Amino acid sequence: MARQRGEGMLWQRGETWWIQFYVNGQRVRMSTETADPDKAKHMLKEKLARVTLGEPLVARAGRVTFAELRRDLLAHYEATGHRDLEEAGWRLAHLDRAFGRERAQQITGPAITRYIVTRQGEGAANGTINRELGVLLRMLRLGVEHGKVVRVPIVHKPKEAAPRAGFFEADAFVAVRGRLPLDLQVAVSLAYVLGWRTQSEVLTLELRQVDLAAGTIRLDVGSTKNDDGRVVYLTPDLAELLAAHIARVQALGRELKRVIRWLFPHFPTAHVRKALVGTQRRDFRKAWATACTDAGHPGMLRHDFRRTAVRNMVNRSIPERGR
Does the pTM of the predicted model rise above 0.85? Predict the structure, then answer.
């Protein structure tokens, strides 16, 4: 049964208390996200005090949807470049399934806990779940900044496993690399020798960043994890691989009758849509997993290239500035 308190109102839906009050004549209803009547009363008093003082309130909180916050998040990523949109899409896919039909105020701490339990039941690693929660919390924080969300719920993230200490031994790498297409053989060779991140540092390279005459390859400022630029000298084997690869890219450009800027574009195959040919290749997870399985090394991670490269450089006594 509803209970009137001054200009506001309290009532229960199930175990949860809801409040109602008015801002400039407009009715505002929102969940207190608590079953404790005293906490609900305190929240109502706080809202009424803020209305009296003329402080800003979220008037649309009860109508803002997950879908609206999702659109705002993608617009933010596109405008700022803070995250690759395709990578964000992988994480959003699971969030869509759980919250796609919900209003923002229904994304509470208990609802997020249920999401964690569901994802764990699906076999997702805690690290993967936490990356997804990071996207969700960023979405909600943007909602607060835009005046669409009252507050971000408290979330207790699951504990992640200790970092892997795996290395990619040379024989295993050669076996897996040999089962990849020619262009991907070059990409993984760069990652293996130089210790660069495959998705964010290798596949984003443009032809202009490779200087075969000088024997160098350059990462632009802002393209690395720490935003620093980087120039390295190629080994003779890498220089030879890149020269042959660039010739193939240029031949593809002549065939398509347009300039290809990417070092690793999509080449025409039976599995690549015609519209993608010549555009930037953003990842090759399936091809990598298949190659690992076929080579007898299932489950190997490309992330192991980084620590393997550092170990190999230490063993060759390469100074830190030369890495």
Answer: no
